[in-house]
Amino acid sequence: MGILGHFQKWLVEHSVPDWASYVVPALTGIIIALLFLFLMIIVFIYLERRGLGRFQIRPGPNRAGPWGVLQAFADFIKIVTKEDIVPYAADKPVHFLAPVVSFFSAIMILAVIPIQKDAYITNLNIGILYVSAISSLGAIAIFMAGYGSNNKYSLIAAMRGVAQLISYEVPVLLAIAGVLLISGSLGMVDIVESQNVPFILLQPLGFLIFFIGVGAELNRSPSDLMEAESELVTGYHIEYSGMKFALFYLGEYGHMVVASAVMTTIYLSGWKGPILPPAMWFLVKMVLVCLVFVWIRATFPRIRVDQLMSLAWKFLLPLALLNLFATALEVMWQDKIGWEQFPWPFVFLNLGLAIVFILVGSKLLFKTGGGQVEV
Amino acid sequence: MVLKSEPMLISMGPHHPSTHGVFRMRLVLDGEVIVDVEPMVGYLHRGIEKLAETRTYTQVIPLTDRLDYLGSMTNNWAYVIAVEKLASIKVPERAEYLRVIIGELMRISSHLMATGFLGNELGCTFTPLLYMFREREKIMDFFEMVCGQRLTYNYMRIGGMSQDIPEEFLPAVKKFVAEMPHYIDEYEQLLSENEILLARTKGVGILPRNLAISSSVTGPVLRASGVQWDLRKSDPYSIYDRFEFDIPTGTVSDVYDRYLVRIQEMRQSIRILEQAIKQLPAGEARSKVPLLLRPPVGEAYAHIESPKGELGFYLVSDGSIAPYRCRIRAPSFTNITALKDMLVGWKIADAVVIFGSIDIVLGEVDR
User: Fold this and answer.
1) Which of A105, A181, A292, B5 has the CA that lies 20 to 30 A from A246?
2) Chain B: nearest CA to A229, how far in angstroms?
3) pTM
C-alpha cells in the first residue's frame, strides 16, 4: 500500500465522510504529481540549456538568478504575457485542445511511477501497459496540432509525427517485453523489486532499442523530425504562441521527465542503490538519463524521415525480436538451473549477444545513404 | 481503391529560417518528395550595379562589401583589380602580399560559415556552427585590427590597401595559422565520420561533372564535381603563381564532397598563409593614386576565386570619374541555376541540405 493509501486509511479511521476519503487523497496525489513534474521540468530545462552551452563552448543562460537558475521562470513569464494568436482558418477546438492533450498525457504517466517503495500515486498491476498506452496519446496531440493549425509545414510535421510515433511503439514495446519476461510482472513496483541487477546490464540490447525508440517518441534530436527547425521551421507548433506554446514546451519536457522516470524504473533499478536515500537515487538516475539526452542532442545531426522509418522497421524491430527470443530462452534455463540470485553469467552472455546482433544487423539489415525517388 | 492525391505547393521562403537570407523556393511536393522547384530571387535587390554608376571609382568599394557579406574582403579585391586593370595602376609588392593574406583569411572564414551552417541545416543543434564561430571570431578580430570593421571592411583601395597593417597583426596571424590545423582536425572529428552526417550527405544532391560545367557553376561546388578549376591556378591573378598549394577535388559530386572540398581548401589556405607571411616584403602598402580617378575610355573584366566561386567585375569607363557600367558576375547567382537538377526527387529535408551545400549569400545573388 502506498503513502496515499495510508492517508486514505487514516482519513477513514478518523471518521471523515466516505466521499472525502476518496476525493482528498486523489486531489493530493494530483497536486503532488503536478508539483513534481513542474519541478523536474525546470531542472531538466536548466540542465539542457546549461549543458548544451557547455557542449558548445559557451556559458549558456547565466543572468537570471545565481548561475541562471531562474531563466526558466523568466522565459515562462515572457511566454505567458505574449499574445495568443490563432490562425483565421484554424480548426479552433482542435487547435485549442492539442497542447492540453500533450501536457496531460505526461502527468497521467507519472501516476504509476514509484519514486521509492510506497511513494507512488497508484500501483496499477498493469503499470507498463498503462504507460505505453498513455504515452501514445502524444501522437494524437501532435496530429491535432499539425492538422488543426491549417499550415502546410505543420501538416507535414503531423504526417511525420504520426508515422514515427506509431512505428517506434513497436520496437519499444518488444524491448520492454524482454524486461517483463525476467521480472514476471507488469506492475512498476514489482519490476523494480525484481531488479537485483539493473536490467540495463541484463538487457543491454533491449535498453539500446528502448533508448533509441524513446528518443524518437520524445521528439528528441537526432529524431526530432516533427519540429525540424531547419526544414519545417518548427513543425507542428509553428502556429502556436503564448500560453498554448508554453504548454507544448512544458509537455515536451514533461514527456522527457516521464520518459527518464520510466527508463529509471524499468532499466536502472529505480530507487535501489547504496548510501543515498532511495528517492535521491531515483532523482540522480533521472538526471543522468537527461544528461545523456542532452549529450546526444549536442552531438548528432538530424536523421531523414525515410532513414528513421527504415531504422525502426528494418533494424530495431528484428533486433527487438531476437532480443525477446534470447531472453525467453534465458528465462527458461534460469528456471531450470536456479540462477535467480546469480544473474551475472547472463549479464555477460547478453552483452556479447548485443554486440554480435548489432554488428551483424548493421551489416545485413540496414543501409543508409542515397534515397532519391524517381518522379 | 486508389485515393486521389494532389501535389502540395509550398512556398519555402523568403522568411524560412534556412534559406540563407531571403531566398524563395516554390516547391511542389508529392508527400515529402520534391517534384518541381522554382527558385525565386530578388527579395534583397538593392541595385548595387546601378548605384555604382553614380559614384566615383573609390566610392564603389563600400558597395562591394554589401555583395557577399561573408566575404567582403574578396569582393573589394575583385573590384580593385578590375579598376587597376582599367587604369593600368601598379600595386606595390607589399600590398599584393597583404591582399593574399587577407583574402585567404576571408576564405577560411567564409568556408567556416558554410560548413557550420551545413551542420545546422542537417539538424545539429548549433554545435558545429558554434565551434566554427570560435575561429571565425579570431579572423574578425584580425580584420578589426587592420581596418576597424568586423563585417563590411572597405579595406582595399585602388592601388593598395587603405593603410598598412598594425604591428600586432602578424604575430597574431602566425599564432592562428599554427593553431588552425588542429581546430580543423577537431571539426573533422565531430563531423567527417559522423554516421548520421554520412547517411544524410553521401550520394545526396549529385551534380554531374558535365552539368556542372555546362551550367557554369564555379567554386567549391564545381571542384566537388571533379573539375580541377581554380582561378588561383588556372588564371593566376595577383601573385598566386608564387605560392605552392593544391586544388582539392571531389569524386562523387555529392553534398559530402562539397563539405570535404571546403574543409581541404581551408587547409590549403593555411599553406598559402604560411608562405605569404614568410615572404611578406617591407615597403609601401599603397601606391599614389589620384582621389578622383579618371581611367581612360575602355573596358576591363577582372575575375578572382572568391570563397563562393568566380567573382568577376566588368567595368566600362567613359573617361569620367564614375564607371559608365559596372556588371558583377556573382558566383552565388550562377551556382543556384543548377538547383533544380540537384533537388528533384529528393525529400524536403534534403532540399535544405543541398541548398546549403551550394553556399550562397543572398546579398550577392540579388545585388
Assistant:
1) A292
2) 8
3) 0.86
